[in-house]
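This section describes the prediction task in plain terms. A model, or a person checking by hand, is given the sequence of a single protein chain and must write out its three-dimensional structure as a string of tokens. No templates, partner chains or ligands are provided. The sample shown here is typical of the held-out split.
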Amino acid sequence: MVKGLKGTSTISDMNGKVVLLTGSTRGIGRMAAHGIAPTGATMIVVGRSQERVDNLISEMKAIEGCGPVHGEVCDLLVQAEIHALADRIKKQFDRLDVLINNAGAIFTKKITTVDGFERTWALNHNAYFLLTSLLKDQLVATPESRVISTASEAHRPGKMGWHDLQFEKRGNRNGWSSYCQSKLANVLFTKELAKRLEGTSVTANCIHPGFVNTGFSRNNGIIGRFLMTVSWPVQRSPTKGAETIVWLATSDAARQHNGEYLFNCKPGKLAKAAKNMDDATRLWALSEEMTNMSDIW
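The expected answer:
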């Protein structure tokens, strides 16, 4: 056993195991990378900037017990780049023990991606669904693999706008409505994923990191920066926000959880909408269409 992040007790020796982490170069993702590094796992850290990826790798290599670290640059807003990322991973690695879908953002300005989706939805939901689908075979082939997705308590006010998922007609309240919808989608995706992986040894869970003091929303102009600044006293540290991800990724005890939403390493309470399995199935079918993944599942 090796020492993990403060508060997570001890974590397993993961020598020879492969962990893929998106959104790894900032905030929660960066601290999750630091927290998993001492296990000796082979880490694949994904970010948008080569410079930030390289800086993270340098930080991780200075951590005692750190195993091999591979950097990948990918814009997860672009489905073609996600396909290319998955292809590279499948060529380089014959197993995948942990997939952590962590990259996420809130965009106050509505912009459509090259694939035709509102950016918050594209990054926070479609990217999770697509990358997981493309790496499904590796996950299933790896004994006791795990999928971890970063959701949020913001799922509570979220509503699935089935006839307007991309907010072409609805008001988006400076991006907040879309963000809440995407976080609700994260929970529904996790529940349906766990259901579809029944009979395999793969577990799928999502987490709420808490209100974390990161660069989140600071790319959204003066209002976003102001709101993050004034709320600083009630924010938790990125290290604390990463604890549940690290625990789910590394702890033997975490294997008891499947299809759950966790906060502080314990099952959290879900909004009623997040328990609707009919909606989870409906979202899955739509997600297959939006990512052209209907032949995978």
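For orientation: The first strand starts at residue 2 and ends at 3.
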